[in-house]
Amino acid sequence: MKKVVLSLFVVFTLFACGKTQMADKGPYLAQVGDVKITEADLESEMQNLPDYAQSMFEGKEGKKRFLDEVIKKEILYQEALKKGLDKSPEFKQKLEEFKKLTLISDLLEKEIMSKSSVSEQDMKDYYEKNKADFVATSQIKASHILVKTKEDAQKILERLNNGEKFEALAKEASIDRVSGKNGGELGYFSRGEMVPEFEKAAAMLNVGEVSKPVKTQFGYHIIKVTDKKTGPVVEFERVKDIIAQKLSGERQKEAFDSYIEGLKKDYKIEVNEKAVASLADEKKDEAESQPSAQQAEESGEAPKQETKEESK
C-alpha cells in the first residue's frame, strides 16, 4: 500500500512540475512507444522535484525506482493523448490560461523584477536613516477595557473620543473586574505573556494611543499603551533581510505601477460602468440577504466558543 501511495505521489509531483522535453542525448534507458528516455531526461526530471522528494531516489537503486516513475508518467501522458483529452475544450482553456500566466510571469521578470534589485549599500542607507524603527521593545505597559461584543466596544470608543476618561470607563464597563477596578491597568508585559491578537495590537500603538476594538478569545478590547521599555538598536545583520524585502517590495510596486500606466497609453480601454454598477448592486443585495457572523452568533445560528473568562 505504501509503495502505491509513493508512486502516485511521485507521478503527480512530476506532472505538477511540468512536462520536461525529452533530451536526445546518450543511450536511452527505456522506451515507451516511440519515446526514448535517456539519462539526461532522468536527471532533468529529477531536478524538477523538490529537494525532499529528490532524497528518496538517491543512489543507483534510487535512480532505477525513479526511472520507473518517469516511465509511468510517459505511459499516462501517451494514454491521455490516445483518448484525445488534448482536444477537449477544457484542456484548451487550461492551456491558454497557462500560456497567459507564463507569459505574464516572464514579462514581469524582465520588466519589473530585474529592475528592482536592492544593493547592500541601499540596505545600510535605509538602516542608518531609520534606526528608530529597529529599537527592540522589551516590555509594554498597557490598560484595557474588555467588553463582550464589538458594538459595546464601539460605544466605549465613541465615549472616549467624546472626552470621557479611560480609567473611569474601565471601572464602569470592563468585564475584566480585576483590572477594571484599577482603571484597566495591566502593568508591564513581555512578548509571549499576552494572547497574540492583544500583543500585536499593543505593539503597534505608540505611548498614549488607544486602539480600535481588538477581538480575542475573551471578547473585545479597547487597549491603551501607557509606556514602553526599549532596548538597544537591533544590529544591521539581523534585520538586513527584512530591509531588503521591504525595499524590494516598494521598488517592485513603483516599477509595476509606472509600467502599467505607461502601457495604458498604448491600449484602448473601455469600462462598461453600467454593467459594473449592476454587478456591484447584485453583490450588495446578496450580502444584505446573508446575516453577518456577529448577527448569526447573537441569534444562535452560529456555534459559540465557550471560554473561561480570565483577566490578563
Describe this structure in words.
By secondary structure, the protein is of the alpha+beta class. The protein has helices at residues 2-16, 39-48, 51-54, 59-82, 89-111, 120-129, 150-161, 166-173, 177-180, 196-203, 236-264, 273-289, 293-299, and strands at residues 28-32, 35-38, 135-147, 185-189, 214-216, 219-233. The chain has a four-stranded antiparallel sheet. Strands 1-2 form a two-stranded antiparallel ribbon. A hairpin with a 2-residue loop joins strand 5 and strand 6. Helix 1 (2-16) crosses helix 4 and helix 6 (120-129) crosses helix 11 (236-264). The longest helix is centred in the last third of the chain and has 29 residues, at 236-264. It is elongated. The two termini are 51 Å apart. The model is unreliable at 1-9, 18-23 and 287-312 (pLDDT under 50).
Question: Topology, pairings included?
Answer:
Blueprint: H1 2-16, E1 28-32, E2 35-38, H2 39-48, H3 51-54, H4 59-82, H5 89-111, H6 120-129, E3 135-147, H7 150-161, H8 166-173, H9 177-180, E4 185-189, H10 196-203, E5 214-216, E6 219-233, H11 236-264, H12 273-289, H13 293-299
Antiparallel strand pairs: 1-2, 3-4, 3-6, 5-6
Helix pairs in contact: 1-4, 6-11
Tally of DSSP helical segments: 13
Which geometry do the CA atoms define? elongated
Question: How confident overall, as mean pLDDT?
Answer: 84
Q: Could you estimate the helical fraction of the residues in percent?
A: 40-55%
Write down the secondary-structure element order.
HEEHHHHHEHHHEHEEHHH
Strand content: 5-15%
Strand order of the largest sheet: 4-3-6-5
What is the total tally of β strands? 6
Please state the CA-atom Rg, rounded to the nearest Å. Answer: 30 Å
Major sheet: size, sense and barrel closure? 4 strands, antiparallel
What is the structural class? alpha+beta
* Uncertain ranges: 1-9, 18-23, 287-312
